[in-house]
Amino acid sequence: xxxxxxxxxxxxxxxxxxxxxxxxxxxxxxxxxxxxxxxxxxxxxxxxxxxxxxxxxxxxxxxxxxxxxxxxxxxxxxxxxxxxxxxxxxxxxxxxxxxxxxxxxxxxxxxxxxxxxxxxxxxxxxxxxxxxxxxxxxxxxxxxxxxxxxxxxxxxxxxxxxxxxxxxxxxxxxxxxxxxxxxxxxxxxxxxxxxxxxxxxxxxxxxxxxxxxxxxxxxxxxxxxxxxxxxxxxxxxxx
Length: 239
Prior knowledge:
Elements: H1 32-40, H2 42-45, H3 56-60, E1 66-70, H4 76-84, E2 89-93, H5 97-110, E3 115-118, H6 122-129, E4 135-141, H7 159-168, E5 169-179, H8 182-194, E6 198-200, H9 218-225, E7 231-237
Parallel strand pairs: 1-2, 1-4, 2-3, 4-5
Antiparallel strand pairs: 5-7, 6-7
């Protein structure tokens, strides 16, 4: 279900909700700056509710490739990557309002115009608003690993999610995932390897070295301080 910047359902139209969510929607406390950003900057960078496919050239004002950045957290790494790679458009997706507000502030500070934000459930956004074969890539960095076995069903990376990526990513496009939780990283690697539509970009067929352009996230930095090993996966959609 898409959420408007005020934290209320963006539409009263009935929608088919996923039975299991990969996130817990926390209220969070907005700073004064984040609230101002949601009030004033959302019309410029935000994606309002709707049930039709997004028109990327109209949305971004250009024909540049579009990459979905799912679960961007506070948005710091998203802003850094957008600034470093202006030739790419980022469709940034996050359900938590403080993070959305923070990224809006960073977009204003850095004068970035190649980012649009959806405050929405990423899976529902992909299903309902992204045309098949329209994405140049998907980035999923440090999703909640839901470490307890009884919660594994809540992990976003499941066979159905991989099948969704197969539909939405154009040939030659990429999937880039990262995790500092080894069992979840292995789980993602196994599911992506089983796909007949993707090929592993790692020469070894396993995990991929972190590319220089991927900005470390807050969660990654914290994990490294705790001694966690970070695993990157990069897969290419076959032609």
